[in-house]
## 1
Amino acid sequence: MAKITFKENLCKGCGMCVNACPKNILELDKTRLNVKGYHPAVIKDQEKCIGCTSCAIMCPDVVITVER
Amino acid sequence: MAVVFDKPKALTDVPFHYCPGCTHGIVHRLVAEVIDELGIAGDTVGVASVGCSVFSYNYFDCDMVQAPHGRAPAVATGLKRSLPDNVIFTYQGDGDLAAIGMAETVHAATRGENITVIFINNAIYGMTGGQMAPTSLPGQVTQTTPYGRDTSVAGHPIRVCELLSTLSGTALAQRVTVDSVKNVNIAKKAIKKAFENQINKRGYSIVEVLSTCPTNWGLSPEEALKWLQNNMIPYYPLGVYKDVTAEKEA
Amino acid sequence: MGEKVLMKGNEALAEAAIQAGCRHYFGYPITPQTEIAAYMSKRMPKVGGCFLQAESEVAAINMVLGASSAGVRAMTSSSSPGISLKSEGVSYIAGSDLPALIINVQRGGPGLGGIQPSQSDYWQATKALGHGDFQLFVLAPSTIQEMVDFVSLGYEVGEKYRIPTMILSDGMLGQMMEPVEFPEAKETAQAEKTWATNGHKNKRKKNIINSLYIEPQVLEDLVKERFERYEKIKATEQRAEEYLVDDADIVVVAFGASARVSRNAVNMAREAGIKAGLIRPITLWPFPENTIKKAVSHTKDFLCVEMNMGQMVDDVRLCVEGKSEVSFFGRTGGMIPTPEEVFNEIKKLSEKEAK
């Protein structure tokens, strides 16, 4: 059981978290823009998250909080 | 559930101004995590250098001084000599450290100045829009080497860790990168050692972090990490070039 | 006051700095100021202070920037070509509102120039020691005693207004010996430096020492605030010595070493029946406008005597506003005017007035 949350308005849509996720459950939400004008990273399937923190470790903007 | 990853306390709430995918943010976070883990935020004074990271004085939640271009090691020397019990670190880019500030860098190292240096090597001048850096690779296209860096004209890149490892005052010279989870973890350990060395009065410790500049390289963040892996790491091999603590153990 | 001791100017100044609480000196060898560094290297270890020979003047001034940021009394010294190298750091120090003590034991220029005494860095010290809108508090000693006394004055004024101080000396004052007295050792109370970057100890908000302001309105506001402080300094810190000025027809204006020569020339003039006097600016910035302006009503001729091609004379003309004649006599390149040469100039002016 793990949960990740995004401080979405800090996200710059670089996608580094998406590439880092071993479960491939992150994506950039191409349907909307955040306040900075980027497509923010979101989690597709929270149930599959293992709380490994890889996404947070690779995020250059400290957007992600991980709970486990 | 418990929070297992969150923003370190030694970072302020000011959002980073860096471009999307720029690895400065990762390195900032690692420095802040180390400051938190060592419990030294109240004793630490950081020195921001000129370049993209100049605004780091807004990001670290410790006292900060902004130095003239290249002079961060001299400013840090003045701070450390005045505040020997505080922790002083500089955060410098490749233009700052290895071009305009090379004299200050070499002499701070050879004096064994007891400071911690975080060196971002992304092979380009970021803030001014992508000119050749002292660490730009042979053949690398930049704004001021539009036909690629011609070493017969512009000279060769400087391998900073190798150079500084020859000096007696250097306690730690280690090159790391932040292209993967594994390497980020190695980078953090190196940064922690560089701070611990200062606390243990071991001398000048430098961690060179191979970094990306997607904007000025003209690549996506993902492509930039691949370019770093394929081009920078072969020229600038990762590893420990000097570590006085290992020498003692051996 | 203690007993008088015979000391070389450079060494007396260095000792005064130690007695004023300076424990951090960063320097680089250059003639004719090297005795300051040598003296500091001998004394600092004995008082638990830091003497560091930097790799360059550029590094030395930035070490001062770091030490001043930490809140301690720091100092560097150099001579003309070395001061040019420090100008970048001086601009950053001023732009960061840091106090710091910078000594210039001037020699002839431009370029590598020479190693003999000169005053040709007047413009640099008072108008533009670096880029941007800023001033230094500039003191010009003319005796070894003043080399001593101006150190603590420089620190006190610099800290009060958060402005760097320069003592503009020259190779003559640096190298000559005179008896001096050091003020009795007293712990000069330094104002608490709440702005210092010495670690927030989790007890206060972080401090930032910085000179970068990307928003032009913010930068303009900060520069204007700094210039309000400069106005206060102008109003309260002007210093000059007046010698036989009250009834003078001809007033020589000279500072530092050239004032010593000029005083002798004024005495010669008085003996010859010429009503001559001397105004000796002690603060070069702020320039002692009030003293010059006060003398305008009775002075027919001002004669500026400098060891350069005519630099301070500009400031004198600005004060006199065309109400009296202002002329200039100078030697440069390391040449020192003689009292006879200055007396001849005074005599020429006197004869012209008599016609």
## 2
Amino acid sequence: MQKRSDGRLVAYLDGEIEMAERREIEAWLATDPAARETLAALGESANLLRLAFDEVVHEPVPDRLIAAARGETVVEETGARVVPFKRRQTAIPSALTRRWWMGMPIAASLVGLLLGSVVAYLGVAKLAPGNIAGKQPAVEMAAADSAWLDNAAGYFKLSVSAGDGGLVDVPATGDPREALQKISQSLPQEVRLPDLKPWGLNFRGARLVVADGRPAAQLVYTTDNKAIGPLSLIIGSSKEPDIPPTLARRQDVNLLYWRHQGRAYALVGQSDIGYLWGIANDVAWQLDAV
Amino acid sequence: MSLSQKLAGSPVRLVSDRDPVSNRFSDQLIAVLPRLRRFARGLTGSAVEADDLVQAACERALARQHQFQEGTRFDSWMFRIVQTIWIDQIRARDVRKEDGDTAERLGSDEPVRQVEARLALDEVRRAVDRLAPDQRIALLLVTVDGLSYKEAAEVVRVPVGTIMSRLARARIALLQQLEAGGGMRRSIKDAEAQ
């Protein structure tokens, strides 16, 4: 028999002991009130400990850490709302040194905050190259495709207001690809499903919607991460020429949209533009859509 | 045509010229950031130092991403990097932080019940801060982050029995400190109230 000790109680509490020893400890607890009291106190202190640090995981992750994870360093200038990015000062792999502009989405989000709703609501202004850090073109606000974007934002809001119950034609039960196959039957082109689990986004289902007068698929994703929030990816067809990724805003909804080889894409959500940009990056890569 | 070539003419670039492996690597890294921050907060006892630590860990991970073995747990690999950097730091200097948070909060208009709850949780954090580094690591990995003893042992690269004994000492020391400081007398419901 193992020595009776508080340490054994800790392992017992953590479910880290074998069945035979578990029975020994339970027999001990049955006859020793002090051991039961210690076990309860250990359990309570563990709960307090988890509570003490739980809030950290619900805090928004600072931009500088997102940038660091992408291989960039953020430097905030005193008195400036714009956060320029600079090359890392430390030795890094050569493949990463070309990525100075990867931080632009975050800078763009701060520019968006700075400009406020005036430019965003107008939706026609273009930020001149050099407005961010005086160097590069940053965010091109949407001028065209207004109705398409209005609809995309509307579909997103509908899906959010429907909640977890879901306003989806085809729920993502079992194999989510089946949902896509069913939706694709109503579309001129097959729709593929990007896997956004690395972002904590779970595919909830798909809806058949209308965009630009043609059927389109709305892929609905949800997440517990409030910094990212629910997202919709709308994939439709288009006869218009390709356009590069472009940012637009409809009230409190951000959209990144682009067209590529007869398809129109819009990633729609209320998350920070930096997140939206990164996720759209992932979508485009997975779908070979850029 | 490669992705980078496709992107070359795009005036507003959506997709990076990172290779797919780097993209996936960064995505994994971003996904685990909240847990790394919590782990680092427990180690350092300071929000600013914790984020500095996580940033340093991100930079080291990116520089050494070729060392990560596919098929192994990415979060464990990152926890190991964070704890390695932290151990290096505390060996290099005796880190003692000033805890100004409590005084600041006491001066606020928070209801008494919430203040007490905050005090209880502050006390827990201070108790963690007083633990030996190896005990603190075991406690944060297992009790806070929920790793099994075996997973924590893999992160720290010690036998499971070592994790078990470090954790037992940490939990008992924590309990003793909280009982001595009155933390356990404050209702856990107070803590939950906030």
